[in-house]
Amino acid sequence: MLIRLKELRLERGYSMTQAARKIFSHPDTYNRYEKGIREIPLDCLITLAKLYDCSLDYLAGVSDQPRKYGR
Fold this sequence. Notes:
Blueprint: H1 2-11, H2 16-22, H3 27-35, H4 42-52, H5 56-60
């Protein structure tokens, strides 16, 4: 999940600070999410999935299909 989170952020051209602001988080907290130092709360995961237009399964590494179901 951690690698995917960074890859998705970089694909969209966001800095960590920009991504953190988009999910209403502090940049240090987002950095800890990306590095695996801090667990990502479910509500934040949902926000990240919406931001990056991908499924929760993809973020969690359960699926290799980045798009939401039905697309």
